[in-house]
Design a protein that fits this description.
- The complex is a heterodimer.
- Chain A is built from two helices and ten strands.
- Chain A is mainly beta.
- In chain A, the strands form three sheets. Chain A has a five-stranded antiparallel sheet with strand order 8-7-6-9-10.
- Chain B is built from 13 helices and eleven strands.
- In chain B, the strands form two sheets. In chain B, strands 3-2-4-7-1-8-11-10-9 form a nine-stranded mixed sheet, with helices on both faces.
- Classes of the chains: A mainly beta, B alpha/beta.
- β6 (about 70-75) of chain A pairs antiparallel with β5 (about 210-215) of chain B, so a sheet runs across the interface.
Chain lengths: ~170, ~425
């Protein structure tokens, strides 16, 4: 079932033929994070794809994956392009290494899942929270509800985790 | 350095020196062009053909690239009264120039064309802005963009920045080292009468300019301009009859990608970019190595894209790019100047073609600086690189162009003076 919705004033559109994204976001809407697991080699992948980037098999199944990890890299956006984000600067875009399948199939591989830094309620993080996060920060997944059948996976500080004493931040602050 | 004379068609080097760039041309680099991309393209193509000493009727192939912001080759060809044996308009931006040079060589090698012109025309300030603003920002987010643009992660600067951040984390690269790229390119631009920004800026100026998205300041980003640019490719024999000294193509690699390029942040070290893979084709095909190169043209959409490529193509060790770009090596008068025209950061933005044009002129020993022109029409270069002076690299024999599309895709080319 196609989905048209608006998130922060920005139109999102998933058409009927995009079955991989429809399946992915259906799980997200239920606040469950699922990824495709290859039916041949068993490796997980992100984002949704039509075949396995590790072994090229088209067979896969959706399985639940724990949404916890550490920030691999980030950018802090001060000049928003998307009009809807202009009231929310600075905001963070995070690349998060999931704990699941980290270092597989090679030492530099990980499931690097994109998201913004948000509050536990899924709203873009306020500046004081943005300033606390850098490379190495432990984060957990939460969801920003957009519409029935659609939520975006996001990241918030994992308050229950042991955090690095000073996560790496861009040095010119 | 010795150059092989005999052609061994069993070797990947067999196209070495078999093709040449014989013409280069452009419009002014400007804002508010007041004309269509079709007019910009027509003028650039016309200028390039004239520079080669050819007529439009001598050209039978045309290639162009764009991202929905230009004009198709048949219109330009029609306007100039040309009859083509082959044309193709490719979707794409950065890294297209070198890739299309490779395609042009293949067209001629296959007997489909004799002379091929490659152009890029864009109103990059007045119409579709590469920075991502305008109509594109308002379009619905779907498909792959649900995993990027939905997060306000859209412009090239935003998309590439995590790559650079991780490089700083992994290797201790400092903001002032990378800012030196802008400062040095602005020195070069100050000696380029056609550069859009000719004012010299300092490292401190870059670091004091406002943050766009960390780690990028405003002055770490290239300039958006309106312009057309074009080059003419033909075989080395035909090139002898053209107007200028021959600039021979030693080797090319086009749109070489990292593994899993659709989401290049997933696979391998994110701060290793496509040049790491492209160099395995570029240097063996060219029969030379980075140590042989006299000048580079590295795609400076941002200061750090230059640094990352110079590292991954092997001009310095991985992680030492910060020192390489800030220690004087890439400055005019240094061991291996980079982007002597000022590049995208200062001369103008035309998706890579202007740096190829610049290197062709460098190899002709005819950089269009402020040095006096002698009675024979040739410049008397002073090699005095102070502001407003010379920008010709002394004894420039071999250059490399490094094209960038995103961290996951790259193209490159080595050229030499005959």
């Amino acid at each position: 079932m196609a989905i048209q919705a608006t998130y922060l004033g920005m139109p999102l559109d998933i058409n009927d033929l995009d079955v991989e994204n429809l399946a992915y976001f259906k799980h997200c809407a239920a606040h469950d994070f699922h990824l495709q697991r290859c039916g041949a080699c068993g490796l997980l992948r992100y984002p949704p794809t039509t075949a396995c980037p590790w072994c090229a098999s088209p067979k896969s199944e959706w399985i639940a994956v724990e949404g916890r990890g550490a920030v691999h890299s980030y950018t802090e956006v001060h000049h928003a392009i998307q009009p809807a984000f202009r009231n929310h600067t600075p905001y963070l875009v995070l690349l998060v290494d999931l704990d699941t399948q980290r270092g597989k199939p090679g030492e530099h591989e990980a499931l690097r899942v994109v998201g913004n830094l948000v509050t536990p309620q899924g709203r873009l993080a306020p500046p004081e929270m943005v300033r606390r996060v850098g490379i190495g920060t432990r984060v957990r997944m939460v969801f920003s509800d957009v519409a029935p059948g659609l939520a975006l996976p996001q990241w918030t500080l994992d308050e229950g985790a042991s955090q690095p004493a000073s996560p790496w931040r861009y040095p010119q602050e | 350095m010795t150059m092989p004379n005999e052609t061994d068609t069993t070797s990947p080097k067999h196209l070495c020196d078999k093709y040449a760039i014989v013409g280069v041309g452009e419009t002014a680099y400007m804002r508010g062009s007041g004309m269509t991309t079709r007019a910009l393209g027509t003028w650039a193509v016309r200028n390039a053909i004239e520079d080669a000493g050819l007529e439009p009727s001598d050209v039978d192939g045309m290639l162009s690239y764009q991202s929905g912001d230009s004009t198709f080759a048949p219109f330009i060809a029609g306007d100039l009264g040309m009859r083509l044996n082959f044309y193709m308009d490719v979707f794409g931006g950065g890294s297209s120039t070198e890739a299309l040079v490779g395609l042009a060589m293949g067209l001629i090698e296959a007997g489909m064309c004799k002379v091929v012109v490659i152009f890029r025309a864009m109103n990059g300030f007045s119409q579709v802005r590469i920075g991502g603003t305008g109509a594109r920002a308002a379009a619905p987010v779907s498909g792959d963009m649900l995993h990027s643009r939905a997060y306000g992660w859209q412009s090239a600067g935003q998309m590439f920045s995590p790559t650079f951040m991780r490089h700083m984390y992994d290797y201790g690269t400092r903001p002032e080292q990378v800012a030196a790229v802008k400062a040095i390119h602005s020195e070069h631009a100050s000696n380029n009468p056609k550069a859009f920004y000719r004012k010299r800026v300092s490292v401190a100026d870059v670091l004091a300019s406002r943050i766009i998205c960390k780690p990028l300041h405003l002055l770490d980003c290239c300039v958006e301009t309106d312009n057309g640019t074009a080059i003419v490719v033909t075989n080395a024999e035909r090139a002898r009859d053209c107007r200028h000294p021959r600039v021979l193509i030693r080797g090319v690699v086009g749109r070489c990608s990292k593994p899993r390029m659709d989401m290049h942040y997933q696979h391998g070290p994110v701060s290793t970019v496509a040049g790491h893979y492209a160099r395995e084709i570029l240097w063996p095909n060219s029969g030379v190595g980075p140590e042989d190169i006299d000048a580079t043209g590295s795609y400076d959409a941002f200061t750090f894209t230059t640094m990352l490529q110079l590292e991954d193509y092997g001009f310095c060790k991985k992680g030492e790019g910060g020192d390489y770009v800030s220690d004087g090596t890439i400055r005019l008068g240094g061991r291996r100047p980079n982007n002597t025209s000022g590049g995208h950061l200062c001369e103008g933005y035309t998706h890579g073609l202007n740096m190829v044009i610049e290197n062709v002129r460098q190899l002709r020993h005819d950089a269009d600086d402020s040095c006096p022109v002698g009675p024979d029409g040739r410049r008397r270069h002073t090699y005095d690189y102070r502001e407003g002076g010379c920008r010709q690299v002394r004894n420039c024999e071999l250059t490399a162009n490094l094209g960038w599309a995103n961290p996951g895709t790259g193209s490159a080319m080595v050229m030499r003076r005959d």
